Amino acid sequence: MSNEYKTPDLKSARMRKGEILHERFTLDEEFFNIGKNLKYRIQTYGCQGNEADSEMISGIFEAMGFIRSFDERDADIILLNTCAIRENAENRIWGEIGRLKSYQTKNPNLILGICGCMPQEEVVVNKILKSYPYVGLVFGTHNINELPKYLKDVFVNKKRVIKVHSYEGAIVEDIPKVRMQTHKAWVSIMYGCDEFCTYCVVPFTRGKERSRKKEEIIKEVRELVSQGYQEITLLGQNVNAYGKDFKDEDYKFGDLLYDLDKTGINRIRFTTSHPRDIDGKTITAFKDCKSVMPHLHLPVQSGSNEVLKKMNRGYTKELYLDVIERLKAVKPDISITTDIIVAFPYEEEKDFQETLDLVKKVGFEGAFTFIFSRRSGTPADKYPDIIPAEVQKERLLRLNKVINEGYLRGNKRFLGKTVKVLVDGFSKTDDTKLTGYSEHNKLVNFTGDETKIGKIVLVEVTDAKTWYLEGIEVK
Ligand code: SAH
Ligand code: SF4
Ligand code: F3S
To answer: Is the pTM of this model over 0.85?
Structure first.
């Protein structure tokens, strides 16, 4: 095995000067049959951005003749599409790599690969170079389009490939996709993040904020409509920064929502929004665009202005509450969910109390809650480590208690009402029931007609639990 390395480094990731390149993907004939008689498997971790990337990676594999393996024991290549957001996310993946090694003992030809956000960190690539000689393919978030070349090197030239770019990243259109669902689709509208929240690794792992051209997005959504898709989720680390990088036109996220509403798609969702960047047109879209669903995920992170400042979030609690008020003015029944980090360095009990107060004031109907995790190379990594582990855990528990009350309250308001549900399939816990999400993004388990999977049906809500609604289809 000969080697070829290109390791990432955080210093060059921080420099973001170059022009954003818009490129198109094509697959040369030399790559068509490389995957003949070979099976691939992808395990995806992290956010929807990674899920969308895995659909492109699958698209490339299948265009090269590989077929998907549903059983890890018969795969010729197992690729982990990784997440670096918190230490426990990474630990889980290191554990998984160790576990998969045993398959390689049984099948020495098995290629283990790692891609996604973890390899964008210098420390991770160094660790692989030092301690994981059995990992044969490593690439990052900026070079998915180079995968055909890497697979040829791995399978034909028998090389070990470790290639990660630290540059800001281009936008590559026309990468084939194998979508995981036939009624709901991810649509990436932008890549990267320029916010540099002090705790966060994403600006380093995903590069500079860059927007896809509106024509490309509208074309993709029109195609999805013609294929029968009911729902799209627009993806970006900060979708409200969409269009900021356009030099020749003034076209922002709100404009995109109004244009996509005209494509005929039934449901539009989007994630993630940033409270500071959310503009008036995005807010009015909740009223004017019938496809824009009445749910917004708007991460607040903390209810203390001092902590928000240390996080470099760029807004105050007052500004956040003002956004919520404006949203409720145009869409009184909107459901709001959020992300919160507890035990951020400098968070004192009084700051935490302010977070609890804010949670009650807004009336969140759900939240992802996290204990702060130190990420190498981020500014917050240098902040003092003074909050004892028990206090961290205890704050998380206290917060979750209030958040769970919000889930239940949010569900209870639909009791006895009829809601529209996009049917995903059979319930995982009870296969006599169907399951799907309502317009307000509530999970609904119900008795109904299975031929409606993939369609939108009316469901009468008969019970409201903390995590889901129960109901009966109205025929
Ligand atoms: N771009 C999105 C999502 C980023 S990651 C946004 O800005 O909201 C999802 C969530 O993970 C964040 O909202 C934050 O709550 C959490 N998170 C990010 N970095 C973290 C860290 N170092 N420790 C704990 N939680 C973190
Ligand atoms: Fe991370 Fe902040 Fe960017 Fe979200 S907005 S990805 S939390 S830096
Ligand atoms: Fe994780 Fe990367 Fe997404 S770090 S949350 S997979 S952008």
So the answer is: yes
